[in-house]
Amino acid sequence: MPHYRAVGDVPPKRHTQHRRPDGGLYREELMGAEGFAGDSALLYHTGVPAAIVDATPWRPADLTTHPNIPLLPRHFRLPALFDGTQPGTQPGDIDVVTGRRLILGNADVRICYVVAGAASPLYRNTTGDECGYVEAGAATVETVFGTLDARQGDYVIIPRGVTHRWVPDPATPLRVYVIEANSHLAPPPRYLSRHGQFLEHAPYCERDLRPPAGPLLVTGTDVEVLVKHHHSRGANGGVAGTRYRCPSHPFDVVGWDGCLYPYTFNIADFEPVTGRVHQPPPVHQVFAGRNVMICNFVPRKVDYHPLAVPVPYYHSNVDSDEVMFYCGGDYAARGGSGIGPGSVSLHPGGHTHGPQPGAVERSLGVESVDELAVMVDTFRPLELGEGALACDDGRYAWTWADGDSRRHRAPNNTEHPITPSTQ
Ligand SMILES: [Fe+2]
Question: From the CA of 330, how far away is ligand 1's center (Å)?
């Protein structure tokens, strides 16, 4: 994160003695990015943050991916993955960490989805930052930095290596679209001054970000923590897991300061940029990672030139695959395609896409849209996860052809069988 925060009990001078009420020393931890040449935080623990007493393998969910061959735009109906018709798919049986299912992935990012009602195990992802977009429901996200209150429309940003767990509000199932970057996620550099302050043209600023307000202290012994990490053998998307047993609870931090910490940002606090004619996708950007960017499309007044066409032109994003998650309202450009709330579309690089037939004409004269969508653009091709194969509608590619379905095939057809990839 670009700006400094201090929470709880920290000493006036870094790397100096910081004593507990009983006279003992707190243990100082420097958590730093980019080889300690990037953002960092100093945390003060009551226990020893390095202490473990056991380690065993933990296998994360199936992260195998399959190439998108033949190259097709696709529509995935995510709600079908958690409709309760399969054993063990009731939200009360599922947690955000172990129950998420892989939709799309490549060497830079994994996009997952989960509907959960159970508290997750303690967990940290050492492959990169996680961004959990809360489609519906609410949760408390407990972290070593303190507690985040996550509500509908929140992006929950958990930096790489931060131990945390998701505790859903029992009132309604928690639906989370999880973007696991294999890098750090941050506001785009063009939004920031050279010292890291949000500039006036940025669509959000420091006041919109909600970090933990205070420390979270939990006592416990013999505590399990699941750790997701890279391995080099290619299997399961190059991702493995380890289950640590810790002699004391990792939530033992009495204070921290720095520019590296978890936080939330609500999509309703994104101020859209509008114009007389259609604005290009970069105006919708929220976060950037390595070879991946996150944008959102929010309710807004649309183009006000007297001859404006409010829905997008056909476009070829030749260097990127584009993934849209339709999480609210009505997305006018996709009218007639079958896409609805909870849908994901994949528009791969190499395929021109734009409004479905009739959408341009229907948009003329419209003054505002109520659409809500989260978009991920990647700069390397995405492959299909097991979740995608389980909810591909098999028809989307043909929806621009005025209903001509002569080429309609199931997505995993026998003419071009989809086979696993090791990335
Ligand atoms: Fe697009």
Answer: 16
pLDDT at 91: 77
3-state secondary structure of 93: helix
**Inter-residue contact 179 to 130 (CB < 8 Å):** yes
CA 46–ligand 1 middle distance (angstroms): 50
For ligand 1, the distance from its centroid to the CA atom of residue 335, given in whole angstroms, is 14
> Can you tell me the distance from the alpha carbon of 381 to that of 25, in angstroms, rounded to the nearest whole number?
50
In this predicted structure, the answer to whether residue 417 has a pLDDT above a threshold of 60 is: no
Read off the tokens for 36: 């300690």
Which position has the token pair 């992935």? 105
Is beta strand 383-384 parallel, antiparallel or unpaired with respect to 27-32?
A: unpaired
At 346, list the tokens. 């994949």
Distance (angstroms) between ligand 1 centre and the Cα of 315 equals: 6
- CA 294 to ligand 1 centroid distance, Å: 13
What pTM was estimated for this model as a whole?
0.94
Cα(15) to ligand 1 centroid in Å equals 49
Tokens matching residue 262: 């978890």
In the sheet where 221-230 sits, what is the strand order? Answer: 54-57, 239-248, 221-230, 123-125, 164-168, 139-143, 146-150
The answer to whether residues 161 and 131 touch, using CB atoms and an 8 Å cutoff, is: no
Q: For 249-261, what is the mean pLDDT?
A: 98
The pair of structure tokens assigned to 327 is: 């999480």
